[in-house]
Every structure is written in C-alpha cells, then in structure tokens.
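Quick one:
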Amino acid sequence: MEVLRTPEARFDGLKDYPFAPHYVMVPDGEGGSLRMHYVDEGPRDGQPVVMIHGNPTWSYMWRSLIPVLADAGYRAIAIDMVGMGRSDKPAALEDYSIDRHEAWLEAALITELDLRDAHFILHDWGGITGLRVVARHQARVASVVYSNTGFPTWEPGREITVMNRPGAEFLQAFQDMIRQTEDWPHWEQVASIVLCDLSDEVKAGFAAPCPEPAYVVANRKFAMMLPTRNDNPMLEENWRALERLKSFEKPFLCLYSDKDIVAPEGHRSVRGLIPGAAAREPVILEGGSHFLLEDIPEAYAREVLTFLRNQGEG
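Output:
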C-alpha cells in the first residue's frame, strides 16, 4: 500500500486551530500500519468527548467546539479519519472502504486510546463510520450527538425490486463528476454550501491537508461510496449495526440544522429503532447549513453542553 503523509508545515498557523497534534498507529488492513491524527485538549482525566468528522472535512471543522468542551472540563478528542487531515493517506481509491474506516476508527479509539464512558459527536460520514463503532462498543459509550447525517440500510436477504435509491440520479451525477476530477477542490464545495461568508483563511484551513491532487483520494472515494444503489454492501452492514443499536438506551441527541440540503431528515433513519434517540425530540437549529459548525457554532456548542450536562433528562 502506497501511503502519503501531508507535510507538517501545511498545518502551521491555521486560523483558530492552535492544537498540538497527537498520533496513534493502526493496522492498515494489509499487514502494515498507518498513522492517525487526533486533537486531544482539556484535562486528560476529564470525561472524553469524541468528535468524528465527515467528508470533505477533517478535525478542523471542530475548531470552535474543542475549546468550549475543554474549558468545561471535558477531554475533547477530534480524530482525523484515515486519508484526511493530518492522518496518513493511502494513495489508491481501492484502499478505502466503509469497513476499513470503521476498523481504523475502532483501532484508534478503542484499542489504542482505550476510551471508556465517552460521549460521541458524529457528523456526515462520521455518522455512519462512528455509529458503527458505537454499535460494537456500547458499554464504552456514554451518549451520542448525531448531526446532519443519516444511516441508510438494507436488510440482508431482502429482495431488491428497485435498484436505485431515492435521489440516485443527482448523486450519480455528482459521483461521475468526482470520478473525472482528480483535483477536486472540495474546500470550495464547503464554501458553496455554507450560509456564512467563508473567509480565505478558513478555506485554506480546509484545504491544508491536500497540497496536491493525490492527497484528495479519500475524499473522492467517500463520494463514490454514497449509496445510490440498494446493492451497496455498506447498507447490509449498517443494518446489522442498527440491529445491535436496538438495545442502546443511553442518551442520544439528534442535533440538526434547518437549512441542510444534504441530510435534512437523516434523524428519521435512527430515531425509530434506537431507544435512546426515540426518547428525545430532535433539536433543529435555525440558520445552519449542512456544515452547521461554520454557520452557527455558538448555538451548536450551547446545545451540546446542555445535553452533556443534563444526561439524566429525557
């Protein structure tokens, strides 16, 4: 497996991202190892709060929430998925799968960091990869905040009578563009989706991990793995994870925004089956796009802290 590593100098002086890097080594799935990066702020004996980003972002997206959590006494951990941020980047599209992302996160958070009694905050693809880790390690999880994401499934053995999933044509067109665009400037896509005026400094922060087109492979592969067809293998594995989560009664907050064009009602995919999620009405924040931490960071942080501090309330 050929592996790229973004030069450290690319991360110097990023706006609102003064955090020292931390690393763990995880198996690459082919007999080697990969370096995964994570931010680790706040007291080391504080209760862990794990933040898992989606695509096409990295731990930079949590830059406004990390200090809020640390100041409140939590151990704020924001990890970069393999292929993104400061983590190592396998160079080939075929190096990536949802199963591998799940295994890499599990190795980093459970095996290496040995986190227990941890709160998980999941966004976008982090809502799929991260929730699958939660499903396998429920005893280590204190609660979940689920934001602007969804959990698509297909029951194993169920007959497929219609192959395309809802929205397939739009997503397939997007995937076709990604296949043909090796130098996809995904930070510009973030800028086009947010409702705020994303400064050049912030765009540079999102672009920092990718000095050359070769470093965008993981982002492109995530786009290609979007479930446009009902035979996508991810869907059956998601179904199995959701079956395990039918016993998850711990606090589970769906925290979304009202201007999301990607997964505006993604909470419906989990609330009917996960008891902890069904026990709480979703909180829909006003004025936020899919990347709600760019648009309404203060409102988001306020709701997260309220949820964490009132775990006994339904």
